[in-house]
Amino acid sequence: MTATDADWDVTLLQRARAAKVRAYAPYSGFRVGAALRTTAGDVFTGVNVENVSFGLTLCAERVAIASMIATAGPASEIHTLAVVGDGHDALLPCGACLQVLSEFGIETRVLASGDGGMPVATTVAELLPRPFSAKRLGQGRNRDDG
């Protein structure tokens, strides 16, 4: 029996929630967990890692992506990303995370959730319709349709 996208959604949200408890958030107290599934079916997690110099803080989504690249390599593509934050409302990826996500699949599904309420389902393309891209620069490796 193979898992459906709905089964994967539940699994990814559970993995993101489980990861969230390991976040390093001593300054904001706001923990975030992320779990992504590649098109090959591998799952990687990440948490936010704050720094007293706030600009050096890492978002959970980018930590998960870095784990994916370090483990599975740069040709990886993301099928679905789940992100869960403290609080009731769904937590959507920030602009920087969306830009990085666009490198690994502009049609990536995004599931955003908080500690309560229903998850929000969308795509990177809906949240960032015109990402900065190598294609627009006329150089480098083009990984998106933008």
Short structural summary:
The protein has five helices and five strands; from the N terminus they run H-E-E-H-E-H-E-E-H-H. It is of the alpha+beta class and 146 residues long.
Write up what this structure looks like.
It contains five helices and five strands. With 146 residues, the chain is α+β, with helices and mostly antiparallel strands. The longest helix is centred in the N-terminal third of the chain and has 16 residues, at 5-20. The N and C termini lie far apart (36 Å). The mean pLDDT is 92.
- The total domain count is 1
Rg from Cα = 15 Å
Quickly give the CATH architecture: 3-Layer(aba) Sandwich
Structural class: alpha+beta
Total helices: the number is: 5
Distance between the termini: 36 Å
Low-confidence stretches: none
Strand order of the largest sheet: 2-1-3-4-5
**What's the rounded overall pLDDT mean?**
92
Q: Beta fraction of the residues? A: 15-25%
Q: Shape from CA axes? A: globular
The top level CATH class name: Alpha Beta
CATH topology: Cytidine Deaminase, domain 2
* Series of H and E elements: HEEHEHEEHH
Largest sheet: 5 strands, mixed
